[in-house]
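Input for the complex:
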Amino acid sequence: MSAVDVAVKSRGMRPTDIANPQFFHKIVDCQWACPSHTPVPEYIRLVAQRRYTEAYMLNWESNVFPGILGRTCDRPCEPACRRGRLEDKPVAICRLKRVAADYRGDISAMLPKIPKKKNGKRIALLGAGPASLTVARDLMPLGYTCVVIEKDPRGGGLMRTNIPSFRLPEQVLNEEVEIILDMGVETRFGHEITSLKAVLDEEFDAVFVGTGAPRGKDLKVPGREEASANIHIGIDWLTSIAFEHTTKVGKRVVVIGGGNTAMDCCRSSLRLGGKDVRVTVRSPRADMKASDWEIEDAEREGIPIFDNHQPLEFMLDNGRLAGVRFARMKAEYDDTGRRTLTPTGEEVVFECDDVLMAIGQDNAFPWIERDIGLEFSERDMPVVDKTTMMSTRPGVFFGGDAGWGPENIIWAVAHGHQAAISIDLHCAGKSLTQARPGPGVSLVSQKMGLHEWSYANDYSEDLRVAVPHADLRKSLRNLKVEVELGFDEKLALEEAERCLNCDIQTVFTRDLCIECDACVDICPVDCINFIANGEEAELRARLRVPAQDLSQDIYISDELKTGRIMAKDEDLCLHCGLCAERCPTGAWDMQKFTYLERQADPSGQPHCSAYIT
Amino acid sequence: MTYMKKPKVRHPGLRKNTQGMTRRDYEGLVSTLCAGCGHDSISAAIIEACFDLDFPAHRLAKLSGIGCSSKTPNYFLNRSHGFNSVHGRMPSVATGANLANRDLIYLGVSGDGDTASIGLGQFCHIIRRRVNMTYIVENNGTYGLTKGQFSPTSDRVSKSKKGEANLFEAIDLCTLAINLGAGFVARGFSGDKDHLVPLIKAAFSYNGFAFIDVISPCVTFNDHEDSTKSYDYVRAHNAAMDHLDLVPEREEIIAQTEQGKTTDVRMHDGSLMRIHRLDDAYDPRDAESALSILRKRHAKGQVVTGLLYIDEEDVDMHELLGITKQPLNAVPMRDLCPGNAELVKFNKSLR
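Predicted:
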């Protein structure tokens, strides 16, 4: 610790630098948690105003696939939502995104214009999944020639092959994929890449690898080889359903694995003729990887989940799969929370006709030569820079699952945006790090009059609205019937009101404060304090309600006239504006904070940019 | 005024008292007073004190007269009894209520106009009668509700917002209360809740008439440069005599004290009040010294705050009058009015 640090420490916490955009950005929990930093509260307000087309475009510019993500996103925004810390259930952000997509008008005139005259640069995009499509979306308006090379006959990647159509209707998928392909992207569908060297030989100006994590893990236990006719790798099986090569399954199906792929496998089985479909997981249920809502959906369809079941053997009868023998497991946790699974000694057999294996995915790059200057790590993954997405071979970029292992669509989109920025800089011969554009930021007062604010700050006490589902009997009969119906307008508007508008920030001006305590007294969640400064841990303990969540920052002011400081725990602030409303001097103001993650083409985000000013 | 409702949602980590209540459960409606009014801080201090003292809200009665201050009982303790009386007449209503039901906790809230102008006579007599209650004057030195005229507690050196001079001397309510024999007299400042909340708690714990004069800046009419009741003036001239610790009976006293700097007072409810004295001349048990400090410091333009005087031996109205311990409103009718035969017998005894 330096002498300066010691001096500062003895006086207590430093005043918060609100000019650093990351301070307020972090308070917008949903936007902060979203890999592509979609301005969530802003589009929820647009939904609340029934301006669905604008809400859609704001999303489209930021995350490229609002209709798809509104159904299938892993929604890192929702566990982050402040509302979840206040009362349990976060705002149904993902479903409100779908509302924007479902009710939007014609957007064709709002899409970026593609210049007729190309800039002469050719980019190869390997794989036609969300990462590659995002790169194309960002580069096409700048005049690049983008060439997508994909082994499947159509674009979309895992969004098409791994997500069953009862979760994502094909029409929604096609629409959003085609918006990008229609920009004039060259496509080589049905073309499997067997050599990166061969691609590089074509002399592209840059190559982006967005080939995903296409290899499903296998389980080597006795009987695997002998029964292989009825044992399927989950993601491959889902792909063959998507392209209608597989149309039925046995009556008794055992799914092995507890992730989202397992949930898709078991629910697809029900729709292809499975009667007795079971999910088996090695670990305790609480440790299952699948999203809670996907587990709920599977259970709602009557699929039992057997946890603590470790497969030991595939059993055969006359050379044909007859069942799976499992060891029952017990989980024990040590002091550090580390889990060990030990067999209880008990064994069970589930008889079945088919087994679907969904125990994870691996990256596979047999087609990348190891002598072309592209380094691989010890884990046999390409070495890629986290910021620039560039590999150790200049001009070759990675993104999505291909870059970082299995994640989800929204991460692939975020990587795609960053890769596009890098490719553009690379082609212009600029530094990928120093020339990288920073975020667009603005902070604007929302005060309209004496008691008027430009946003709806009344706190809605409503609980999270449940999404209506299609009739179970009907949806189980047809693989293509979408299970979730989405919100109707009434439900959507109700849910939209639950949003706290966390981007409308409480901004404190020290020089205006007369320390009358009006804000302290009115704050519904006791987050404002006027106290003596101190070190952070000690100060957190002294607040009106001790601030125990260290992931949430404390907003600290400069010293006030009485020698105290203002300390606001940002954790549960409702952004209701009552502090500003009750402040006699305007020391508190409600100001809209906007944060725009820049993309390769600055003019390609007109709706996002409009929201910034 | 604020049109927004204060959301009912509260911090999940908010502490609960022995009644199972959070501080929020002692709140009232959102204030209609001007934003930044000192009175709102006093309301918050009362809420804090009632929460800390674990009061069952339904055992408390809040009474007031007329004025900005007297509106405030609407903004706290909305689960308690309330009576918003005639201008300056809160003491009569409080006396009557206290006679009828001595078991309730009584809180009177008044202003400088309500107490020192129209209600001055009532104020003097409720002190004489030793009514067991806490009487808080929210003293902003101005008639805020009628647009900022001088009140009888405006200091002579203070000017109006428009710069008019004040021709008359101020009535010092604490001096008056000590002179009339009040057993607990204190002065607080709405802008210093750390000091005010213990004062209010001590007043509630005192058995007898407890008076607190709280200087409470009027942000609209009396928070300007030439005012002696502005936030800035009081902060700059605050002569705090003490800091109080009120330790409930159930808790161990662990506060370290400097020899000769503290005075301990055992309160009737069993709690211990520890007074940390900040001024050597000050002795809270000595009325003469209190009056002298008030006079001398006032002459220097200072605002004396703290527990100015306490008489531990004082008795309340019910003891003076020898009234039955059972609240009169709970005494059965046949005991209250034993019938004609008893009356005849009684009358005979007087002949």
